[in-house]
Every structure is written in C-alpha cells, then in structure tokens.
DNA sequence: CGGAGAGTTGAGAAACCTCAAAGCAGGTGG
DNA sequence: CCACCTGCTTTGAGGTTTCTCAACTCTCCG
C-alpha cells in the first residue's frame, strides 16, 4: 500500500506512526504528543507472508500498522483456523493478547509492511498521566468489540451475497478514509482468506463475486475489484 | 439465580459487587478496595424483561451483574436483531458503549436481576491511580474481544451440533465456576434466543437438542438441561 | 380453565458445501 | 527471455445441512 494521496485524517496522526485509529482523533498538546512519539519509536518491517506474532507468544506490545496489510487468524484446537480480521494502516493490533499476557492469534503480513511497536507497559504508564490518551485507548478497545459484534451479526444472520457485499463495502469505506478510491481497489487476500473471514467456502466467494459481476454490480479480475453500482451493492446489506 | 453455595472466586470479590470478572482476580489492598467499593455503591434491580439500557442511550456507566441473568442484543438497520451474549453474575456489560459514548446494543434482564452501576468517568479516574485496577480493566476489555473471536469462530466454521455443544459446555463451565452444578442447569433463554446467538433458527436448536437427547448425550425437558455424557458432548466441539 | 407464548416435529425448498476438473497468473530457474 | 511449476481461481454437478412453512402440543399465568 503506497502512501495516501491526500488524507486529512492522517495528517493529524502523531509523527512516528498512526497510533490513533482513523476517525478517533485524540486531543493531545505538543508536549504530550512528543511523549507518545517517544513511546512508539520502534519500527519494524515485514515481508509478505512473515508473522508479526504467533498465537502463544508472550505479550509485550501493541502494534500500529504504518504501511501494508495484515490478517489476524485464530486457530482452533482441532486445527481449523479462521481469519478474524484484516488490518490496514492506522489500525492497532494485538489487543486480544492483553487478557492472558499471550497472543491468542497469529498476525501475518499480506504484503510488505511496516509497523510501529508500542510497548504496552509504557502505554499504560503514559495513559495514567494523560487522561485523553487513556480514554482514547479505551475507545480503541471498545471499537474492536463493536467491530466484532458487527461480524458476529454478519456471520449469524446474513447470506453469502449479503456477507460479501458488506465485506466489500467495508473495504471500500476504509480505503476511502485513507485517501484511496472507494470504487476501485486491489484485494490483498485470497478467496480462501475472504471465505474464512466470512464463514464461507472459497468456491462460494468466487461464485458470488462472479454473480455480482454478471449483474453489473462490480467488475472483478482476480484481485482487482471495481465497484460499478455502489447503491445496489449497499441495498444487499441493508435490506432483505 | 440464587447465591452460590460455595465459590472461592466470589469470596475475593469486592464487597459491594463483583467488579472483577471471575478468574481475573485483581490485586488490591484494603484501602484500594474501599475506594473501589465507594465507586460501585449504586445498585439497581430489574424485573424479568426490563431493559438495563437500550441501543442509542448515552453512555455513563458500566454494569456489573450481581444476581440474575441478562442478554445483550444488537439491532440491524433492517430490523433484524441478534443476541450478542448472555451474561451471568460477576460479569461486566456495557463495554461496547465506550467507543461512541452511546450504547450500541440493548441489555435485557432474562430473570429478576440486580446490578451494580460503575460510573465510567470515576472508574477511569481511579484506574489512573491504581495500576492494578488499570491493568484489570484492560484485561476485562481484552477478554471480551477474545470471547467474541471465539463466537466468530463458532459462527464461521461450526455446524449446528457443534455450536450447540459448545454453547452448552460454555454455560456448564460458567455455572460450575459460580458454584452450581456443571451437569444440570436451567436455561434462562428461549430457543429463539439461543438460535439468534448461535446463528441458527429456533427449529434447528430444538431439533438438535432432541437429537442430543436421543443419543443419550443429555436430557432436556423444556428449559431444564441435564448433561449425561460430558465427554461425548465435548468431542463434538474439539473433533471434526 | 383458557389463552398466549414457547417448544416440537414433519415435509419440502433453498443455500451452501464437497469433490472434481480445468484455466490462469506470477515467480523461478534454465 | 521463455517454459514450467505452483498456487490461486473459476465453474460444474450432485450431496448435505439448514431454513421455511405449517400444524400441533405443551407450559405457565392469570
């Protein structure tokens, strides 16, 4: 993922990384911002396919994605694994590890990526001093919970077409918020990964995309998606 | 739900309510505990069917369930609603409201219940002073995220039998942690509500329960469940 | 005792999955 | 630079699971 063309949300981010998730701006003055920057100075890069962390590893830090694209996946006891999310620049991952001091899922780079490490001890420390930061951290965690509820709803009560429409619209909206086109984008993940995330088999994902294309909702060429009829796509999700 | 017969986890809870979720004990000394107690002194009771809060209401406080049983449900834009969780004594609800300062789901009492209100401003304030409490709050939120991932996995990759087995084992484990029998318990929710939570129709829930009974895994009489073969029930969830 | 909500059960339909085969794209090594 | 190989994607046919619609029963209250 290249740098956004023109994105006001990104401009207000702290200089070293996007600690704040987009749409959740935090109110910090210059000095406070410096402290936050100092906290988030450790950066690392990952090649496509590399693991940022694995299930079971000790928890030390949260990670803010600076550039690139990740997926997180949880493994079942019986070996089945399920993608629990796709993460874009500006988003925070690792929150699920706090409760047990160990990561409960894997995070894998879907393309060459750069992240910014946020030592959790020090984040907690700093957030005791900066109530704005404290509240912001709570909001990020709460937002993750709400997001998960949305996915539960999708998995529990939507049909394949609705799930895929919701998925594409969500991607579109997130790309758009980062200054990219909401109508045309590149999928970083395989059909299998999309299916895993949406509770569908890869063949169903492929068939449904083809069907969307036949009906003129969008055009797909392998991983290149162009949404042609945003309104009709939206009507899949909202209405029955 | 009556008071537990003999439950060590509850004994270490603060006196006025179970702020800590079970299995996540917090390390506070006497004075700190007093401060926490002062925070959580407001109690309220609810009759079966009453709403603790509704989607859209302003967010002011978290709620610890002291006695009783709740469900939380999210409403779709199109009117569909989905149960996102069932809550028992000692559990905290309302975390999803932090991110937007408004509740994003309804909380409904499934039986006469008593809760303890925790004003969030003051909880944040106190957790700035007490690092142990701060970490504990973060763990509670993180635990909610992990729980939700578990449900996503259930919804995305399990069949009806597996989902129901997982659901019953989860209830059993939670009752057990509260000092009740893990083998025999009363369901507080309807088939419809179970189905909504598990992404199934009520008829499928009913049929699957009947099938479990036929196979000698458990006995069901409407809402009274007795698990007869815990191991075989477990094998549904772990194995293929 | 009657009514309303909850639960059970059956039959047929719909959605999605499984298995299989073939086409495509991108990377690697000759 | 091309050919090949591997992994990803598409499409088809048939099977399973779950849903839908419907009728009936049960249980709990008033």
TrEMBL record, chains A, B:
<keyword id="KW-0238">DNA-binding</keyword>
<dbReference type="InterPro" id="IPR000595">
    <property type="entry name" value="cNMP-bd_dom"/>
</dbReference>
<dbReference type="InterPro" id="IPR050397">
    <property type="entry name" value="Env_Response_Regulators"/>
</dbReference>
<dbReference type="InterPro" id="IPR018490">
    <property type="entry name" value="cNMP-bd_dom_sf"/>
</dbReference>
<dbReference type="InterPro" id="IPR012318">
    <property type="entry name" value="HTH_CRP"/>
</dbReference>
<dbReference type="InterPro" id="IPR036390">
    <property type="entry name" value="WH_DNA-bd_sf"/>
</dbReference>
<dbReference type="GO" id="GO:0003700">
    <property type="term" value="F:DNA-binding transcription factor activity"/>
</dbReference>
<dbReference type="GO" id="GO:0005829">
    <property type="term" value="C:cytosol"/>
</dbReference>
<protein>
    <submittedName>
        <fullName>Transcriptional regulator, Crp/Fnr family</fullName>
    </submittedName>
</protein>
<dbReference type="InterPro" id="IPR036388">
    <property type="entry name" value="WH-like_DNA-bd_sf"/>
</dbReference>
<feature type="domain" description="Cyclic nucleotide-binding">
    <location>
        <begin position="24"/>
        <end position="98"/>
    </location>
</feature>
<feature type="domain" description="HTH crp-type">
    <location>
        <begin position="158"/>
        <end position="231"/>
    </location>
</feature>
<dbReference type="Pfam" id="PF13545">
    <property type="entry name" value="HTH_Crp_2"/>
</dbReference>
<dbReference type="GO" id="GO:0003677">
    <property type="term" value="F:DNA binding"/>
</dbReference>
<dbReference type="InterPro" id="IPR014710">
    <property type="entry name" value="RmlC-like_jellyroll"/>
</dbReference>
<keyword id="KW-0805">Transcription regulation</keyword>
<dbReference type="Pfam" id="PF00027">
    <property type="entry name" value="cNMP_binding"/>
</dbReference>
<keyword id="KW-0804">Transcription</keyword>
């Amino acid at each position: 993922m290249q740098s956004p063309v023109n994105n006001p949300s990104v401009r207000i981010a702290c200089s070293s990384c996007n600690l704040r998730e987009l749409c959740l701006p935090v109110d910090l003055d210059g000095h406070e911002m410096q402290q936050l920057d100092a906290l988030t100075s450790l950066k690392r890069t990952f090649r496509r396919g590399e693991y940022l962390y694995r299930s079971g590893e000790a928890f030390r830090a949260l990670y803010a994605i600076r550039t690139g694209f990740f997926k997180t996946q949880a493994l079942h006891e019986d070996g089945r694994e399920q993608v629990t999310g796709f993460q874009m620049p500006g988003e925070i991952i690792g929150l699920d590890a706090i409760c047990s001091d160990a990561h409960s899922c894997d995070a894998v780079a879907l393309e060459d990526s750069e992240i910014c490490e946020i030592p959790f001890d020090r984040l907690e420390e700093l957030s005791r001093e900066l109530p704005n930061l404290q509240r912001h951290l709570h909001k990020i965690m709460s937002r993750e919970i709400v997001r998960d509820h949305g996915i539960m709803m999708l998995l529990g009560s939507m049909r394949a077409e609705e799930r895929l429409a919701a998925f594409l619209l969500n991607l579109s909206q997130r790309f758009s918020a980062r200054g990219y086109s909401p109508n045309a984008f590149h999928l970083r993940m395989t059909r299998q990964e999309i299916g895993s995330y949406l509770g569908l088999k890869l063949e169903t994902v492929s068939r449904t995309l083809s069907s969307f294309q036949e009906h003129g909702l969008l055009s797909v060429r392998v991983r290149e998606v162009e949404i042609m009829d945003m309104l009709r796509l939206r009507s899949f999700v909202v209405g029955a």
